[in-house]
Amino acid sequence: MLNRYAMTIGLLVLLQTLAHAQHGEYTVATLPPVVVKTVPQAGDIKVDPNITEIRVTYSKRMEDGSWSWGQISDDTMPKTTGKPRYLADGKTCVLPVKLEPGHTYVLQLNSLTGKFANFKDRQKRPAVAYLLVFQTRTTGGTAAAK
Hints:
Blueprint: H1 2-19, E1 35-39, E2 53-58, E3 69-71, E4 79-80, E5 85-86, E6 92-98, E7 104-109, E8 130-135
Antiparallel strand pairs: 1-2, 2-6, 3-7, 4-6, 5-6, 7-8
């Protein structure tokens, strides 16, 4: 039920954002930024628990110092070990973290409701919300569902 609700809200936010594109001219420049890559990759169930940062790369240069690393619960949010920052490319944001073995993590990059939308391009257009879900492997090799 929560997944359907989240998908519906996400779709509504996307449709609203698309409506703001300039006079129906759809280009990379006029549309909102989207996630093109994450490290770890969404859906990965064998993430090394020793990695020390999560990276998200967007389709265009982003507003420096602006981000929304959201959570759905305290249990699924990784512990942070420093402040987020953008790499020199202006597209990749890095979050320093400490992960645990055999744990499921869920991060909202901008919220699905649009309430937290601080990942935005340099023209101040909020990025399309993205749900990053992954699991770290246990010492035995595969991640345990939690």
